[in-house]
Design a protein that fits this description.
Layout: H1 3-9, H2 11-21, E1 32-35, H3 38-47, E2 54-57, H4 58-65, E3 70-76, H5 83-89, E4 92-99, H6 105-108, E5 112-117, H7 129-141, H8 147-177, E6 182-187, H9 191-206, E7 211-214, H10 215-219, E8 229-235, H11 241-253, E9 257-262, H12 271-274, H13 277-289
Parallel strand pairs: 1-2, 1-3, 3-4, 4-5, 6-7, 6-8, 8-9
Helix pairs in contact: 2-7, 2-8, 3-7, 3-9, 4-5, 8-13, 9-13
C-alpha cells in the first residue's frame, strides 16, 4: 500500500481515536474562527449548521478586518505553523488553538489559553485524516454526538474507496477522450465546505484545476459552462436537495457530465464527514492514473509566508 493510500485508509481509526480519547470541552460562540485552507473550511461547515460562529480566512482577517484587539477567538492550523494563523494570534487577548501538534508554535504563544489536539497522527500529503479530525474537534466542542456516525464510517470505508476509484476512472476517461473545459465540485449548506476541501485536495494531487463552489452560486451563472464540463454534486437531504436534483437534470441535458456523492444514512450536518472521504480516494486514484507522484511541487504542505 502506498504511503498516500495508507494515510487515507487510517481516517476511521484516527477519527475513533480522537472521539474516544479527547477530553470534554465547549467551544465559544459569537467569536472569530480563523484558519487557512482546510482549517478555514472546517468551521465554515458549522456556520451552515446554524452554529453562531464567525469563520473567516486568517489572511484577510489579519490584513483587512482585525483593526482592534478583541478578547477571544479560535485559531485553527493543523500544523500549528501556518503564518497567517500565527499573525492573528496577536489580535486577541486570549485564544483557543486547534492543531495536530500540541507543542507547535501557535500553542506556545502568550495568548493561547488552551490547545485542542486533533490526534490525527503524522500526515505528509493532502489533508485527509487532519480535515476529518478537525471537523470532529468542532463537533465535540459544539455538543454533537458522533459515535454512531463514526461506526458507519468504519463500516463503509471500503464503499467510499470504491466510489472514489470509480469517479477517478470515469473522470480520467472523460479528460482523456473529450475536450473538458471545466471541472466543478458543488455543495450546499455544510457541504459547501466539502466542495471547497475536495477541490483543494484534487487540485493539489492532480495538478488540474478543480473549482469548488456553493451549488446555488453555480446555478447563478457558471451553469452556462455546462456543455463539455464535469460537475460533481455533493448531495444531502436538506433545504437545497430538490433544487440540486433539478439542476443536475438541467445541466445534464445541456451537456455536462454529472456525478453525485451522497451518504443517505446520516443527517445533512453529519454528512460532511462521510461525503468527504470518497474524494480523498478519488484524488489518490486519479493522480495515480495520471502518473503524478508528488503532491507538493510548487510549495510545501505547510504554507509559511516570509
Amino acid at each position: 500500500m502506498s504511503k498516500i493510500l495508507k494515510e487515507i485508509a487510517e481516517i476511521p481509526e484516527r477519527a475513533a481515536k480522537f472521539w474516544e480519547n479527547s477530553e470534554s470541552y465547549r467551544l465559544p460562540l459569537k467569536v472569530p474562527y480563523l484558519g487557512m485552507g482546510s482549517s478555514y473550511f472546517a468551521p465554515l461547515a458549522f456556520r451552515y449548521m446554524n452554529i453562531d460562529i464567525y469563520p473567516e480566512l486568517a489572511s484577510e482577517y489579519y490584513n483587512y478586518t482585525g483593526k482592534k484587539k478583541l478578547p477571544y477567538a479560535v485559531l485553527l492550523s493543523q500544523s500549528g505553523r501556518s503564518s497567517e494563523a500565527i499573525w492573528c494570534a496577536a489580535l486577541f487577548e486570549k485564544y483557543i488553538a486547534i492543531t495536530n501538534y500540541p507543542e507547535c508554535e501557535l500553542s506556545q504563544l502568550h495568548g493561547c489559553e488552551k490547545n485542542i489536539s486533533i490526534l490525527a497522527g503524522h500526515e505528509e500529503y493532502s489533508s485527509s485524516k487532519t480535515y476529518i479530525n478537525t471537523l470532529l474537534s468542532l463537533f465535540r466542542g459544539f455538543g454533537f454526538e458522533m459515535s454512531q456516525s463514526l461506526l458507519l464510517l468504519t463500516e463503509k470505508i471500503t464503499a467510499y474507496e470504491n466510489l472514489g476509484k470509480k469517479m477517478a476512472d470515469e473522470v480520467y476517461e472523460l479528460i482523456s477522450q473529450k475536450n473538458i473545459h471545466g471541472i466543478y465540485i458543488t455543495g450546499s449548506g455544510p457541504n459547501i465546505a466539502t466542495a471547497y476541501e475536495s477541490s483543494l485536495i484534487l487540485s493539489e494531487s492532480t495538478k488540474m484545476c478543480f473549482t469548488g463552489m456553493p451549488m446555488a452560486l453555480y446555478d447563478h451563472g457558471p451553469k452556462e459552462t455546462a456543455k463539455n464540463s464535469i460537475v460533481i454534486q455533493i448531495m444531502a437531504k436538506g433545504g437545497s436537495y430538490e433544487r440540486a436534483l433539478r439542476l443536475n437534470d438541467l445541466i445534464s441535458r445541456a451537456g455536462a457530465h454529472v456525478f453525485t456523492v451522497e451518504e443517505p444514512e446520516v443527517s445533512e450536518n453529519l454528512s460532511v464527514i462521510h461525503n468527504m472521504v470518497p474524494f480523498n480516494f478519488m484524488a489518490y486514484y486519479l493522480a495515480q492514473k495520471m502518473n503524478i507522484t508528488e503532491t507538493f511541487v510548487v510549495g510545501g504542505k505547510v504554507t509559511e509566508v516570509f
